[in-house]
């Protein structure tokens, strides 16, 4: 049985989900994973659909706990949520992983 798009899931394209079974993805249980994938690899329409589905505050709370965001995505999130990079888990985690050597 195919889930109804728009009723129990956001109208998000499968663009960012090339590596998972998009049709069986639970958007509530895996919300942080979905938010991470859409922000890093999704289309603009996917991002707006994500905000309409989860709401601004929930996306903000989840994005602070995401383990990895691209640098451009982190900058985008800093602007739209009015936050500093140091407030994001992905930024502090990246800073604690030193490069083995610089050659």
UniProtKB/TrEMBL annotation:
<feature type="domain" description="DUF6922">
    <location>
        <begin position="12"/>
        <end position="62"/>
    </location>
</feature>
<dbReference type="InterPro" id="IPR053830">
    <property type="entry name" value="DUF6922"/>
</dbReference>
<dbReference type="Pfam" id="PF21956">
    <property type="entry name" value="DUF6922"/>
</dbReference>
<protein>
    <recommendedName>
        <fullName>DUF6922 domain-containing protein</fullName>
    </recommendedName>
</protein>
């Amino acid at each position: 049985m195919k889930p109804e798009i728009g009723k129990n899931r956001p109208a998000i394209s499968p663009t960012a989900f090339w590596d998972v079974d998009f049709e069986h993805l639970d958007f509530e249980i895996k919300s942080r994973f979905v938010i991470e994938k859409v922000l890093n690899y999704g289309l603009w329409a996917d991002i707006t659909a994500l905000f309409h589905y989860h709401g601004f505050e929930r996306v903000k709370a989840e994005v602070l706990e995401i383990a990895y965001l691209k640098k451009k995505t982190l900058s985008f999130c800093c602007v739209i949520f009015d936050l500093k990079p140091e407030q994001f888990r992905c930024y502090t985690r990246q800073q604690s992983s030193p490069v083995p050597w610089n050659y």
